[in-house]
Amino acid sequence: MEQCECLESIFSSYHGSREELIPLLQDVQQHFGYLSDTAMLAIARFTRAPESAVYAVATFYAQFRFTPIGRNRIMVCRGTACHVRGAPRILEAIEEQLGIKEGETTPDLEYSLETVACIGACGLSPCIMVNKKVEAKLTPKKVAKLFGKDGKS
Amino acid sequence: MMAPLVELRARARRAREERLGGPRPVILVGTATCGRSAGAMETLAAFREAAASRGVDCALVEVGCMGLCYAEPIVCVTKPSRPTICYGEVTAKRAEEIVEGYLVGEDPLPSYALGAMGGEPPPGIPPLWETPVFQRQVRRTLKNCGFIDPTNIHDYLAQDGYGGLARALEIGPERIIDELKRSGLRGRGGAGFPTWRKWSFCRQAPGEVKYLVCNADEGDPGAFMNRSLLEGDPHAVLEGMLIGGYALGAKTGYIYCRAEYPLALERLRVAIAQAEELGLLGDDVLGTGFSFHVKIKEGAGAFVCGEETALIASIEGRRGMPRPRPPFPAVEGLWGKPTIINNVETLACVSLILRHGAEWFAEHGTAESKGTKTFALVGQVKRPGLIEVPMGITLREMIFDIGGGVLEDRPFKAVQTGGPSGGCIPASMLDTPVDYDSLKAAGSIMGSGGMVVMDDTTCMVDFARYFLDFTQKESCGECVPCRLGTRQMHEILTDLTEGNGRPGDIELLMEIAEAVARGSLCGLGQTAPNPVLTTIRCFRDEYEAHLRDKSCPAGVCKPLFQYRIDESLCKGCRLCQKNCPVEAVVGELKGAHRILVEKCIKCGACFEVCRTGAVVKVPNAEAAALVPAGP
Question: Complex ipTM, two decimals?
Fold first, then answer.
């Protein structure tokens, strides 16, 4: 019930036109961290579009996810500059530290691990973004410090 | 100039003076995304605290990025009637030292300074614009970045901002387009289509409703020119959009910006609100009766949306899939109306051309490529950063003069321009001039300005695989040759990097590449094979080595090289032995060590920790000739 009320208040600043579909999805995801089945259905009703059409759009874009996300969101940059300066090793190191693979969330919902095409901080490669903060010039050692199991994260 | 703008500008100058507060020191701290990731916010806080505790009255201003990524965080300090001194790598600790040394005292701390500008530099500090990184640059589009407060419209106005708009409103649409024609401006997004021609198509297209879209969906990995510009000087882009709207007869403009650029989006929102407040944007701009509104659309993470018809689909709330052209968007675009889509940098150039004139713009450049161009110079280069150079400068000048050469003075191997749509240019072609046509002749493209430098530790097969991995994931799936072809190319390249290549693979790659390029609707598919084709053309021997000898000459593809210890360099410190997770290193303290090849899992730990450089990567082809490793 609570989610529905929340959705209503998000919808109140929209008209429900087709043009608003992506901003709506972004807004709802921003609020809940992901797009639940309930939310998708509500969005479909609000925009008077078939649910399949809403899913068609949402699944096209990399930004949208349909499962809950961890409290901390790690985005590993896979940009060209990062790649030639060792991004694959950084990803490997993070996967090892957290025990999850790219696209997964730790069971305690503490971290979600994603890769993105480019953060745009290529001069400081290899880099990752943790929530909105960019961690620059990473090495496997720095990764261990950031996400070490000794609780220093 | 128009009366309302004259008044606004006078007000802006007064506001700026008031804010900077007369004769007191001004400290500019670069807090764009790149500065922040290097710790600029901590630096800013340190300045504030140190100044307060030492009782120094100064103005602290957050500015955009000067483009010196290697020296972030960057701070510029101006004491009254002194030259401005630019400091690099200003950590919180250095911030305190600068306050103590230069603000309280009189020591300009030359060891931290990158350079000085505006007046005779103090002893020991070079003039900033004459240092190697700036000497070959011509900063026009980036002139304000790092020197004005992007969150304050007065700063932009005080730098003659919106002067281009005022002139545009005076001379009228026809002469605006003529001015662009004489300037020779070509689209900065990569393809290089003449901007004036695109605009005149749209202007002539029938219909009352037209749209202007600013494409800020900078998706090329390795490129951040647009981000820097939007974060450092958002009004320059807004001004260009206003001029475009007026010339085309559009009343609504959209900025389609990646959601991955949160700070750029924030700065844009602030800029739009301020411009609306001053009557520069919205209804009845500067009292001329011309109305123009700008809306922001956040991209949702799809590379293909940089393609104009896919971008339109995305703004309309649909899957971002391209459609065949013609009709071109200039005739039938957003909601079926004539629409112009211009890159961020193109629009910033429009502002400058209208402000300073076509002749001024065309002073720099070559016969067919006029003006300056910004580039993100990154990769294995000593001074990575955002640079702006006159068209026609050579790759060598950019990489070695401005960029300072290859990291650790390793041999230069190739440079990749144009992102996933571009190609690799090898060392033998370093003297290629950088302009649309020369880069095309060299087998690559100008692209939006990404320039990734590679040294001998980059494997070209792996590099091609990386790009195909990218395009394969980003292919929207509409055209079969692109959807399946990129995937198959990626699989073949993966086989090659894993030592599973089969005879005929290289020829097969070239065959698929041609099919993908010819059978795809949009630029993504048409250009996706470029990284493969150019690397095969210039580095075929590397492909052959992967295929025939199962050997990676650059030591990147794990199954295709071995770690060995050069016994003449090994000091026997046992550091590698201690760090080896699988006990694959044998040898006594102070005696030469050896790696047991059959035990080694190639994690690279020994290579990372060795202080004498004794751990080396040996390609399989050469390893066979060495003394057999093992007990």
Answer: 0.86
